[in-house]
Amino acid sequence: MMPTPDDPRPTRPPVVPPYTRADAVTDGLLIEVPDKLARTFRFTYPVAITQTAWHDTVAWDTRAEAGKPRPTRQSETGRITEVLWAARQAAAGNPTGTHDIPFVVHRVPPHGPLTRALRATLLLHLHRGDHGETVATIGPRHVQHAGRFHLAGDPATGWFAAAFDTDSNGRAYPVVTADTLDAVLAHATDITSTSGIDVTPGADGDVHVHEPGGTTHTLRPDPLGRYHLRPLDWPLVCRAFEF
Predict the structure, then answer these.
(1) pLDDT tens across 109-126, in order?
(2) From 11, 52, 61, 232, which residue has the greatest number of CB atoms within 10 Å?
(3) What are the structural domain ranges in the chain?
(4) DSSP the chain
């Protein structure tokens, strides 16, 4: 019986059951790695991959392959093997015992014309499952975005900036993660291949960008591991987010 307006008895809010890991698997937000495959890589606990990470670093089909201008030799089996191998290596080399372990894979982006493998940083998160057991979830590493930017001549392709530098004239320059830098340079060398831009890695994370005429710009990671694109002096259009 519902209480009347004068009834002093309080009403109880409905009990909402917790959203479980099993629910996330059922809804497709998590994709379970088959136990046999996980054990092959010496994982002694269940492993799942978030939907976002799965579609970016694992999923591959005939439609993805058909969208590329050249054969990629990618396959879903090979891509999940790369992810699990890299995660296993990171877990084995984790002396601090932290429950959030970053690791890097190199994969061909599933969308767009690029056919070279670009880096992507993922996170192996160890936590308790629905019944208190140890489980692992692999997903993208969270990065706070300050805005977006694109090459002046190519507004259709944009990237996220982790921060912005501003010079004395008020011109903004992106500060990006290593993953974004890899994507930007791959795109720039592809669309300007006739201009002779080339990129070579250096020591301690340095990246050398060689331009026509012998000019070389060296990008060095800052203490947070990010790269400042200001030394390139490229025509970049930046748009900061409003918070």
Answers:
(1) 998 888 989 999 999 999
(2) 232
(3) 23-140, 147-240
(4) -PPPTT--SPPPPPPPPPPPHHHHHHTTSEEEPPHHHHHHTT--S-EEEEHHHHHHHT---HHHHHTSSS-----HHHHHHHHHHHHHHHHHT-TT--SEEEEEEEE--SSSS--S-EEEEEEEEEEE-TTS-EEEEEEEPP----EEEEETT-TTSEEEESEEEE-TT--EEEEE-HHHHHHHHHHHHHHTGGGT-EEEE-GGG-EEEE-GGG-EEEE---TTS-EE-GGG---EEEEEPP-
